[in-house]
Design goal:
Proton glutamate symport protein; mainly alpha; about 80% helix; single chain; binds aspartic acid; 17 helices
Length: about 400
Amino acid sequence: MVNKDKIALHWKIVLALVLGVIIGAILQLEVMADWSQQIAAILKFGASIFLRLLKMVVVPLVASSLFVGVTSVASNRDLGKIGLRTAFYYITTSTLAIGIGLLMVNLIQPGKGAKLGLTVPALTDIQTPGSLWDILLRMIPTNPVAALAQFDMIGIIFFSILFAVFTTTLQKSEREPVVRFFNSFYKVMMKIVHSIIALAPYGVFCLIANLIATTGFAVFVPLFKYLVTVTLALAVHFFIILPLIAKFFAGKNPLNYLTAMAPALLTAFSSASSAATLPLTMECAEKRGAIPSRITHLVLPLGATVNMDGTALYEGVAVLFIAQALGVDLGLLQQATVLLTALLVSIGAAGIPHAGLVMMVIILEAVGLPLEATGMIWAVDRVVDMARTATNVWSDSIGAAVVAHYESSSD
Ligand code: ASP
């Protein structure tokens, strides 16, 4: 039988990138002057289709993924204390990760001076929250239906979690129909997402060809700086912060634990999917890392869905990079919005390749930046995705170790 999908998606994206660069360069030639505008318009149209499709799935995907994630764990009777500790670990480490990312991107300024050929949004379109309280207040939607319709992601996330938590308090017979409905709903959404991600090579081709045609090759310098910034920030979190947590809060020798988890981490790195890696993560944590199975069975599946330090860090860096490249100065409060949204986005992102980039729409919307700016980022996303997925799984593994440590000392 002939395998239709002989070329892996990421190679198709690389090919699309190369083709996009070539076509973009041809469009810049003098002889093409008569044609280039029409062709650029067609490319822009293609890119818009891709970006609109991405935006289309975000609301139903996030709402159902959170519901499924929370209800699948919360129905476990062991929840309570373990659940609270787990949630505390997840929120703390993800916030730390975003902090490191924001620090790096502010220090290195990879986007400064870059020309993306995009119009800078009018200052009035940039969302400025009044204060930190304002950001927190905005989490509570006054009308959840309006939140869904108006793309108010923070409100949607807050309500979905609340709805899921209270669903778990129902009797089994009352709970089951709701849970079954949303499980199937989520599966449908994942199918749609998979097919949209499969269109990424075409989207990347249109975005990059259009970008090169309008701005030339200068975009590659900031893109390289962006790659260095994300990689450096991820490395700090992976090799310094998380091992320190493992040592001081889980009583583990970080190097030994890293070796124990190596098969899972390498699988995460090569598959760019923490969901696909989950069985291996559980196996390594139990058999090689000596974490009790009652902990791994609770903490790791939840972690693979909601705890994504690498994704959270990357969201912050990428959005600030885009803002810098557009010459938009995001102040402290706007960066606080980025931090909070990045945290929520990483919770809502699915553990599949490129999910983090699909979700970036949410943060860009929250601060009022144009979606087209993700074009360049798509082009190099696979490499970044591999590194952030390994970081996600490493943080899940250490989370399990920390929870196990506190469980055993409180027994
Ligand atoms: N690929 C990541 C994961 O599976 C999610 C992301 O795209 O950031 O963990």
